[in-house]
Amino acid sequence: MSLSLDGIRIVSLAEQYPGPYATLLLADMGADVILVERPGGGDPARQFPAFHAALNRNKRSVALDLKTEAGRQALRDLVGGADVLMEGFRPGTMERLGFGYDAMAALNPRLVYVSISGFGQTGPYRDRPAHDISYQAVAGFLFRHAETGSTANPGEVAVGDLSSGMFAALGTLAALFERTRTGRGKHVDVSMTDGLVSWMSVMIGPALNGVPIADIGAEPAYGLFRCADGKLLSLSIAHEDWFWRPFCSLIGMDDAAALTRGERVAQTQALTRRIADIMATRDRDAWGAALDAAGIPWGPVNGLAEAADDPHFRARGLFRRVDGSDGGTRWHVAQPLVFSGERPGPQRDAPRLGEHTEEILAPLAGTSTNG
């Protein structure tokens, strides 16, 4: 298939999670992503092989020692012919290495330069070290914890890393598109916390304006319920009377079918207990069939293995197997976007450290390889 980003070269020094996720999306769409890694260890995420492999398929790897002039010159040669440079260091690090935006824009005026950091390139927190849970905390993502004093772990999905990866990919594409009009690249400043604040717009916006948030999740049939077989299902009737009424008819709560949203919210605890008791009377598969037949919004609460084997995802081709660099094969979660019925990538497994150093650097004049 024709790939949207064929011919676009991205040089990435961004490690671990946000940058690799951004370049994963872009590589699947045809970009030639070159990972610049330190010799001997590479991306620290390589210590977790399955994690690293999941994020770095369809990419190539060059090992360069940026503490040497030969390594720095090799990177300059790469950047000189690149469309995008992506980095994920703390603000100021690239400048100290001699690869800040101004220097790279002078070398290659068409370069789109993407910087991903926890708090952005400016502001009082720019130099603060942190990881995902702290980004969530600062951005108000854990506002219920703040209200209740809860210290419960918010979960294992690194939403700050992932959201910033998506914003980095979006910013890259926007800057490349603008370059078609101006002929010049731009510096894209991606802050993990800014991205989370953006995701919180419908909650922080009301706070800015002194009005309450829309508490859609207060509905009694919006939550998780245990079935007779011990499996969990989700119900997601948010505010819709047209779902609530047939749901009540289905589960034998006809006396509650005419309740308005306001009345349901006022009786949430009692109604939720009634629903929970009823859900516990049948197995999840039986409820699933009944809910589907009645057109009620629901979903099974899948474990990881169940999600990997879900017939809907399998039917949509969301999982692909490719040849591994070790001679075997490896399954990957495919690109989630489908273009005119075709889903791009993955084509090949994650590269070994420095696997493509000679292949990439040899054609570049004045380049010294550092494998």
TrEMBL record:
Concerning InterPro entries, the annotation shows: CoA-transferase_III, CoA-Trfase_fam_III, CoA-Trfase_III_dom3_sf, CoA-Trfase_III_dom_1_sf
Q: What is the lineage of its organism?
A: Bacteria, Pseudomonadati, Pseudomonadota, Alphaproteobacteria, Hyphomicrobiales
Question: Which Gene3D superfamilies does its entry note?
Answer: Crotonobetainyl-coa:carnitine coa-transferase, domain 1, formyl-coa transferase, domain 3
Q: Which residues form a coiled coil?
A: none
Q: SUPFAM superfamilies, per this entry?
A: CoA-transferase family III (CaiB/BaiF)
Keyword Magnesium tagged: no
Q: Name one Pfam family in it.
A: CoA_transf_3
Q: Which UniProt keywords apply?
A: Transferase
Compositionally biased intervals (Basic and acidic residues): 345-359
Q: Name one GO molecular function term.
A: transferase activity
Region annotated Disordered sits at 340-371
Q: What is this protein called?
A: CoA transferase
